[in-house]
Design goal:
With 169 residues, this protein is mainly beta. It has a single domain, classed as Porin (Beta Barrel). 5% of the residues lie in helices and 66% in strands. Strands 1, 2, 3, 4, 5, 6, 7, 8, 10, 11 and 13 form an eleven-stranded antiparallel sheet that branches. Strands 9-12 form a two-stranded antiparallel sheet. A hairpin with a 4-residue loop joins strand 2 and strand 3.
Length: 169
Amino acid sequence: MEEIAYRVRGFLTIRGKFLRAPVSGSLAVRSDPGSGCLTGDLALGQSDISRKVLGARLLHATAQITPESPVIGHIDGEGRLFATVTVNAVITRLEACGQTLISGSSCRTATHAVVPLRSAPGFSLRQGGRLAGSYYRPPFRGGGWLTPVLNLLGTGPGNTAVIDLLPES
C-alpha cells in the first residue's frame, strides 16, 4: 500500500459560472499500485465567495464543504484517474450589502452531493495533477426566507469542481 499526501487547491463553480467558490485543504491517499485502486481522506477549509458590482461587494458568503465519505477511485490503463467523493455544504455566513442575513450552521444541503472527478490521461499519483467533474448540487434547507432564493441560484446540475492535487514535499 502506497501513501501520498497532497495539498488541495481549486474551485467550484455554481450554476455555470454565476459564482466561483475557492477550495483548499488536504488529501491523504492510500493506493494499491497493483490494482490501481485508491482511497483517501479529504479535509477542506472554509470557502469565501464574493460577488462585486461596480467594485462594491454586493454579496459575501462563507461556506464549509465537508466530505461525508472517503474519496474512492482508480487509475485506468491509460493513466486516467477516476474518483468520487460525497460531500455536504453549510453556508455559515451570508451578507448582502454589509447586512448579515445568515450565520451559524443551520443553512445546509438537504442531502449530500456526489462529486465525480477525473483527470486527463497520464495522471501520476506521485506528481499529482488536475481533476475536474460536473455534479448536481442538492437543495438547501434551514436558510429561513432565503432558502428558496439559495435553491434558485445554486441547486441543480451544471455545477463543476476543478481540483489540483499538489504533492506534499
